[in-house]
Amino acid sequence: MQNRSLKIAIADDEVDMRDFLRKILQRLGHEVVSVSETGNDLVRETLRTHPDLVVTDLKMPDGDGLSAMSRIWEHEPIPVIIISAYPQDMATRPIREDLVVCVLVKPVKSADLERAIGRLAADAPPASDA
């Protein structure tokens, strides 16, 4: 993302995916402030760390990604990138379209994440130089 490092919370129940996301996001110049494997962990860690962005799997134990984000949005309007092998499961779920940056279908590539984060940057207001 152009000259702006984001604080990012990630969540996925698969250890390989968590490691992939952590490495790629750091390589793209962002700071991973929390790594969770369940929806409940994601809620707790996100409210503790106050990230700029959440990248989460849709299906996880102990509360899925969308349920976790709904709980987080009660406190903070944090944008989210949702990753899933089953994006059709979102069709019947209420979401805050103003905060869902995009949905990525597994397998996710580095370029997919970079484009999604770039979309967030394009939608964000310009930083002030105050």
Molecular structure report:
The protein is of the alpha/beta class. It has a single domain, classed as 3-Layer(aba) Sandwich (Rossmann fold), CATH 3.40.50. Helix content is 36%, strand content 21%. Strands 2-1-3-4-5 form a 5-stranded parallel sheet, with helices on both faces. Helix 3 (65-73) links the parallel strand 3 (53-57) and strand 4. Helix 2 (39-49) runs parallel beside helix 3 (65-73).
Could you name the CATH topology? Rossmann fold
> Major sheet, described briefly?
5 strands, parallel
| Widest beta sheet: strand line-up | 2-1-3-4-5
Secondary-structure element order, as H and E? Answer: EHEHEHEEH
Rg, please?
14 Å
CATH class descriptor: Alpha Beta
Number of strands: 5
Q: What is the domain tally?
A: 1
Q: How confident is the prediction overall: mean pLDDT?
A: 87
Amount of beta strand: 15-25%
User: Span between N and C termini?
Assistant: 21 Å
Outline of the structure:
This protein has 130 residues and is of the alpha/beta class. The chain has helices at residues 15-27, 39-49, 65-73, 110-123, and strands at residues 7-11, 31-36, 53-57, 80-84, 100-105.
